[in-house]
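Shall we go through a protein fold together, starting from nothing but its sequence? Label the sequence line and the structure token line clearly, so we can match residues to local backbone shapes. Would you write everything just below, so we can both look at the same thing?
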Amino acid sequence: MPGLCSSFKVNCSKPDQPSLLAALSPVFDLMAIRPVMNQTTHTTITMYFTLYGILGVDEKSQVLTTYLWMHFWWTSEFSRWDPAQCGTNNISIPKEKIWLPDIVINEFMEENKAPSIPYMYLFSDGRVHEALPLRVVSSCNLDIYAFPFDIQNCSLTFNSYIYYAIELKIILGRDAELMTVFSKGVMTTMGEWTLVDITAQKIEINDKSGLYPDMLAFYIRVQRRSIMYVVTLLLPSCFLITLDLFSFLLPPESTDRSSFKMTIIFGYTVFLLMMNDLLPITGNTIPLINVFFSLCLVLMVASLLETIFITNILINSSDFSPVPRWIRILVLNVLGCLVCMPRRREKPEGSGTEAAEGKANPGTTNRFDVNPLETGEPSEEDEALMELKSLSLALQAIRCEVEQQHKGKQSSEEWIQVGLIIDRLLFGLYIVFISVSFITIIILWVNSCSQ
């Protein structure tokens, strides 16, 4: 095409679009090659986009689905004309009539299912404008540890698939902050996600040969709307664990306490099964909320087991052997002081009732222990003395039985105190866990809202 290469202009026979389209026919024959007069000259692609909608985030597949309005600008050195001579400054032409850059998104996971746009604009100074919608399903490394207060940062990297950096350059055509403002202004489809910001970065590769694709990366930060998950997941779980906390106010020896706890565990299990679809599923990290639910269930089961143990102690403590020394030291002395339940003081064995218990004064002589033959008393009193001696032996047997019952009662009281200390210790752990959970949820929520 010697005339075009020498003049850089298209001459129109009439100032109308049919004449201009006929004059551009030689340009259309060159659609297979990059539109530069000298092949050592690189073509500059100016691009930007508007994020129209966030269609969804799939944690299991690790993909982000967005809807973009793409804009590409470049210059064709083959197509220039005089607007006064041809009657128009621009013309819309079919895309198959002109060279198109092979710009791809590296993170693309599926084909574009957005409606195709068959036309593009060609301007009199050689500029070409291509605008098209894109439904982008891109891979994204999702970090859901802070779910549902997480913020995801997904990247879209644009580069040419065939051309190297010495042939095709990609530059940003609009400031990233302005792209964020425009995107927030037109965005209508967000679902549970909201746009935080869009940033752009030119990826530089330290290679002077230029035999690498020129890349421009956009980083889209989206934030999950956490209010739905707080209302449907966190608050019911906190209410159930708080209800289990107040169940400690029921008498430990009552069977209603254990049945009440079993009902709470059953209800919490059903709640987790119903809410299982709302929880993210991924193999990279375990969300903190899953750990919270597991700890809640573990505490509920532990409180039920502790209730069974305490009830057994309180009912059958009289049949137990004395409390071992290490339990007495660890539980009664150490843990009892830790939970503000000091050990009960033991009553002294001699409390002024020695005469009633049959204890004799070592400085006196028991008149029933005297042999009647040594005193010289009449023999008719022997039968009375023998009966009194048998009565004394019976009283001593009763005394031994009372002492054994007293020791068993003391051992039973120690076991009861051990059970009450364990019950209060678990009650304190419940309070600490619930307090830490509420504080953590509030901090994460405030941090998410501030960001």
Residues 382-450 form the longest helix (69 residues). Confidence is low (pLDDT under 50) at residues 1-7, 346-373. The chain has twelve helices and ten strands.
